[in-house]
Design goal:
The complex is a heterodimer of chains A (about 230) and B (about 220). Chain A has about 230 residues and is an all-alpha fold. Chain A has helices spanning about 1-10, 15-50, 55-65, 70-80, 95-120, 125-130, 135-145, 150-165, 170-175, 185-195, 195-225. In chain A, helix 10 runs antiparallel to helix 11 (about 195-225). Chain B is α/β, with parallel strands linked by helices and about 220 residues long. In chain B, helix 4 runs antiparallel to helix 5 and helix 5 runs parallel beside helix 6 (about 170-185).
Chain lengths: ~230, ~220
């Protein structure tokens, strides 16, 4: 009970480190969502529009990649951005850029898969009409994304929720450095391991509220889409 | 190869989920002809119309448009349009819809405006130009969809059940429009259940059964 009250007071009292951690998490999540959406939505739309051999295999691959654990994604990116890796000179490891890169890679297949699945619910006549009227592939891609903006919004929200709540990538690539790369989830992991539950609980409340907000906005996007 | 042929089909077979959805040993549609596809629901009429317009594939056999295979044939997209049974109009006004199709075909602003106005006049939709496309009746939607195609330069129209589920007024307006298109030399290939529409419009009838183009009343598909 005491921990709960202390957790609430950290939030209500405007504890600087707690709010800095929240802001950092949100900032990382927003950027990684943006970097996941830029290739993820066009890939989902291209899979939806495309008629090519191996399409099923491509969709299955995207879905399979979506299920890769966060630590595996972290490890994969680590091998590229560690000092001896091909991107080592960029100095991304244990820096915000590394966390954003890892989270973007984590969210990218989710965005692509959800965009593809969501767009499949669109009226198939829409794409056929664009094609028969002579719209080229880029125009069709743009028009389909515009028409499917509600399902794409849902995919973006899901991606944001996924990266805001992940811990493996942030821990491996960010290093959980105080006032630099520490996020809500890495703080929770660290504080809980030390037996200091107040800040962990306060951040847990924020993550819960964030998850509820994302769900609510996603619900609104679906409703508006109908 | 027939110089006048718009479409030439040979040995066509299209499978959907391991079932032959449409097949046709041989079919030729000539310039300015009006050809009706008739047959029960699910017999392959719509599939064949979509195949002719390159909306479905891959398939076995060959389909040519103006003497060239339809794959990557720019003439197909320039001159032929498939119109759904319940056509899709894009968000915005009727004018926006026609303007969008004209932009796709890269007409200059002045020519696009002239074409838009001409099509609106010709298809009796001038009064609808500033109406929201989503609020039109079935007959109006069908006329706008055809006007959009013709304004953008299509003279080969593939129409799926163009008068189905329409009130009497809409039905009459669409029939009149199609008769006008036929008189003006457009090539029409359409599917229909309505025998009176087939009698009014078709030069030739192709019957479909279980996915197969069988033959016209005279036994021909040529």
């Amino acid at each position: 009970m005491e921990s709960l009250l202390e957790a609430v007071s950290l939030l209500v009292g405007g504890d600087r480190e707690t709010w800095w951690t929240i802001a950092t998490s949100v900032r990382f999540s927003l950027w990684s969502t943006v970097f996941a959406v830029i290739p993820g939505v066009p890939l989902g739309a291209a899979l939806f529009l495309g008629r090519f051999k191996g399409k099923r295999a491509a969709v299955a691959l995207v879905n399979a990649v979506m299920a890769v654990p966060t630590v595996v994604v972290g490890l994969f990116v680590y091998s590229f951005i560690s000092r001896s890796g091909p991107l080592g000179s960029l100095g991304l490891l244990y820096a915000p850029g590394g966390v954003v890169l890892g989270q973007a890679l984590l969210a990218f297949p989710l965005v692509a898969s959800m965009s593809y699945t969501g767009l499949q619910k669109l009226d198939p006549r829409y794409g056929e009409t664009l094609l028969t009227l002579g719209a080229g592939p880029w125009r069709r891609l743009a028009a389909i994304i515009r028409e499917g903006r509600y399902v794409i919004t849902q995919a973006m929200l899901a991606a944001f929720g996924r990266v805001a709540g992940e811990v493996g990538v942030s821990m491996m690539l960010g290093g959980n450095i105080r006032w630099y790369t520490r996020t809500m989830t890495t703080t929770i992991a660290l504080d809980a391991s030390k037996g200091e539950f107040e800040r962990a609980l306060s951040l847990g409340f924020v993550l819960l509220a964030l998850a509820l907000l994302v769900n609510f906005l996603s619900h609104l996007a679906v409703r508006d889409g109908r | 190869m027939d110089a006048e042929a718009v479409f030439e089909v040979a040995g066509l077979s299209f499978r959907y989920e391991r079932r032959v959805a449409a097949s046709c040993a041989s079919l030729r549609v000539r310039q300015g002809e009006s050809v009706a596809f008739v047959g029960p629901n699910g017999s392959g009429k719509t599939t064949m119309l979509k195949l002719l317009n390159g909306l479905l594939g891959p398939f076995d056999g060959s389909i040519s448009f103006m003497g060239r295979p339809i794959a990557k044939n720019p003439e197909l997209r320039r001159r032929s349009v498939y119109v759904h049974q319940h056509p899709v109009l894009f968000a915005g006004t009727v004018r926006d819809n026609l303007a969008y199709a004209l932009r796709l075909k890269r007409f200059g602003a002045a020519e696009a405006e002239t074409r838009l106005e001409d099509a609106a006049e010709r298809f009796g939709i001038a009064a609808l130009l500033d109406r929201e496309a989503g609020r039109l009746s079935g007959g109006e939607t069908q006329r706008v969809a055809v006007a959009r195609a013709v304004a953008a330069g299509a003279d080969v129209l593939l129409l799926d059940e163009p008068t189905s589920s329409m009130d009497a007024e809409g039905d009459a307006a669409v029939r009149s429009m199609l008769a006008g298109l036929r008189r003006s030399g457009s090539t029409l290939v359409f599917s229909a259940h309505d025998e009176s529409l087939v009698r009014e419009l078709a030069d030739r009838v192709i019957r479909f059964e279980s996915g197969r183009a069988i033959a016209g009343p005279g036994g021909e598909t040529e």
